[in-house]
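Reviewers of the previous submission asked for a worked example of the structure-prediction workflow described in the proposal, so we include one complete record here. The input consisted solely of the amino acid sequence. No template or homolog information was supplied to the procedure at any stage.
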Amino acid sequence: MKKKAKYAFYALRVQVSINDAARSITGIKRTDHIRIPDLLRKAGLPSVNEIAMKAVALETWKAYSSSDGGCGERSLIGKTIFSSRTNLPSENNRSSRSKSLGIIPCPLKVKEKTFSAFATDLWNSFPELRSAPTRGAATVVAKNILK
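From that input alone, the workflow returned the following structure tokens.
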């Protein structure tokens, strides 16, 4: 089994478990044929994608808003992003508007999109996440990203 297919298989198994938990909570049987988003909404449970998005949002906030003095370098995402930022030729030519907004360039090419590249896109797309002063505030923003 290919690596990517293997992860998709595990994500599907987790989603099926969440769906079964939602069915237990709501009392809806599989034979009732209800749409999964409706089932999860009635049970108040998130989907696997929502869980992953929240996790990425919080890890992104921790990487960029770290108070360790190392610009987030204690975080795996921070190490990946900030170590490659020094190699970007456009770093010195960025507009003052981008700097003031806290927007950063993605260190990877489109073909190489990974977790850290997604984190950069997430950081640049949500000013609420960039402006969250505490981890609690970042958690609230992360919960509301998909709503």
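The helical segments are 3-26, 36-43, 48-64, 76-85, 96-101, 115-125, 127-130, 135-144. We consider this example representative of the routine output the project will generate in years two and three.
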